[in-house]
Each structure stands twice: as C-alpha cells, then as structure tokens.
Amino acid sequence: MKKILPAIFCFFFLNVKAQDTTYARWLIDTLTSPHFHGRGYVNKGDRKAAGFIRKEFKRWSLMPLDKKNSFYQKLKFPVNTFPGKLEVEIDGKKLVPGIDYLVDAGSGKSRGAFSIFGIAGANFRGSPDTLKNKFLLIDKSLVKGAEEKSAMDLWITDAHGAKGVIIPEDVKLTWTVSRKKYRHTVLRILRKSLPENPKKITVHIESRFCRKYRTQNIAGMIKGTQFPDSFIVFSAHYDHLGRMGRDTYFPGANDNASGISMLLNLAKHYSQNPPECSMLFIAFAGEEAGLMGSEFFVKHPLVPLHQIKFLLNMDLLGTGDEGMMVVNGEVFPDLFSKMDSINLQNNLIASLQKRGKARNSDHYWFTEKNVPSFFIYTMGGIKAYHDIFDKAETLPLTDYSDVFRLIIKFIDEL
Fold this sequence. Notes:
CATH topology of the largest domain: Aminopeptidase
Structural class: alpha/beta
Helix content: 25-40%
Shape: elongated
CATH class of the largest domain: Alpha Beta
Oligomer: single chain
CATH architecture of the largest domain: 3-Layer(aba) Sandwich
Largest sheet: 9 strands, mixed
C-alpha cells in the first residue's frame, strides 16, 4: 500500500495540472477565434467577448452587482476604427497588412495614387503647396536628439498639407488603439518591405471615428461565508486591438486572453471552494484604449473601494521562462515578501521580480485610491505582442498552472 500511494499522489497532481490548462486552452482558443474579431471595436468584437464571459460567470454561479442583474457596467469613450477596405501598394508592390505595414491607430482615411516625398530627418520646413497630394516619408533612423524627435512627432499628428505620412520601422510592427483621429493617413511600414527610394504609393484606407463607442465591464461576485462585506478582487482586461481592415485581426492570446482565462479559472475554483471573504471578478473593457474600463469603475464603484482588501490584476500570463513580475511589489513590500515566500516554499515559478508603481494596466486606478493592488505578468518565451502573431496555437502557457497555484495559496494567507 505504501508503494502505491506516491503513484496515486503523482497521478492526482498531474491530473489537477491538466485540468487547469485544459479549461484555459479552451478559453484562449475561443476568445482568439475570428468570431470575436480581436475583441475590439469593429463588428462588435468586444460585445461578443463580453457575452461569452458573462455566460462563464453564470456557469460558475457568480452573482451580478448591477441593478439590472446584467453583469454589465456600461461606459463609452471615443475610438478610431478601420472596418473596411485596406490596400497599400508602393511602386507596384502590394503590401500585406500586419506583415509589411500597419495603419497608425489614429490614422485618417485616404484613397488614390500619390507621389512620395522623402526627407532626411524631421526638420524639413516645407509649405503646404510643396506637400499637397503627396505622402511624406520620415526616416526615424536619421532623427537625432530630443528636438528632432519632437519635430517628427509633430509631423505625424500634423502633416502640414501632405496626404499622408510614411514611417519606416526597423524592428517589428506594433499596433495599438487610438481615441483620436488625424486628418491624414499615417502608415508604419517595415523597412525591409519598402523599395529603395520609393516613388509612388497607391492606397485605399477606410476609417471610422466613433465619438461615443458603447462598451462594458463585466463584474460578478461570489459571496463570502464569513466576511461578505470584505472583498478580494481579481481583474483582467478582455479587450484587445480588434480588426485593421476586413481581413486582418489581432488575436490577443497572451494579451489578454491568458489573463481572462486565469480570471475564469479562479471563478471556477472559488465557486467550488466557498471563500470566507467575498470574491469579486472584473473583466475590464477599454484597457488598450487607455485603462478606460478600470478608470470608470473606480469613479463609479459597484462596491465601496474601502471594503476592498486586495486587488490582483492579471495580464500576459502565457509564458514564464524568465519568471513573473509583480508591479507594486516595491509599493507593498510585506505583501510581496509573503508571495515570494510562498513561491519559494512550494517551488512554483522560477523567480518573482518586483517593481514600483506603474500606469501600465488596470490596477493603476485602484492604487491611486489607496487600494492595495498587485499587477502580475509572466516574462520570457515568445515575443509576440500587439501584433498578428499573438496566437493561441503558439502560446506555451509555460508556468500557467504554477501561477494559478501561487495565486490560490497567496490569497488563502491574506
């Protein structure tokens, strides 16, 4: 019997680990599928994702916090989108969106054939007549010092009569979300995809600016058995970059289907293991647009902020080769020490690193209101980020199960 027990324990441990990642894989595969359009602001991708998350909240018997029992906290903000045609050709070479180029998130629309006017650096002083019906190419590699960089940034936002601006990129193409729109077109093109001394560009780019795009946070609760008015909050943003044109979308597997999968795995766990404190689960909208969902929640809290004992925000949890970063670890050293001790005692993640306060995810607004908060993200492994290559099939989930266990053990000791 003594010889059998270790084998049974080993089987149980491996089975639990497989269980964590099986649900996570299904969630990440689902949320990154074309049906959700990159969880952005084209084809209602964010709303479809919100509906899916709400179903999972109901599946794990979470309670809604809003008066209409919808699980939704609705908000709105401006956003620039690219729902239609997206075609770029330079000197007869057709470029592939996401591979060869990106349309800047704040770009305006344009259509037609135009000559390219190249300048060395950013200090060109041309008149609107010089640039009329032309695309201005500004080479960042020739920009020197803060003054020239500032001048280049001004050219991007104000093209001084040019139809558009081309910015060659040397390393990778990284997209974002913009809450404003330029009057002209701005293209970021990989240098290796640009012909030498390009002369002519043909474009057809459709953009649509939504002044009051309506979206929603999703919030649900598991009521505490002993301290129902004391809250532990788990948060993760579910939005991503959406679509750029009809055929190109950004799956957002690591950023942040991985965080949402952890959020839902934790909801599943606590629904099956009733906690003493109330557990609040929030999937935030608008993080990629500037932390809009979390800012709205803090301004219109669904529970009193002073009753939140601790908030754990989760983003980019699909790797872990180089350990895990704890933002605010330096702000709350005792809490970090507790987490680090648990990690070492249980031999979970390679290393925990800490940094100070940062406005880089949804924990920020809570920290500003004196709510003890951590933001965790894993490091190392794949480098796909804010591009079309952040896919479910290449996300390794290296330390996913260990992060899950660390969270559970850490929260148990709070």
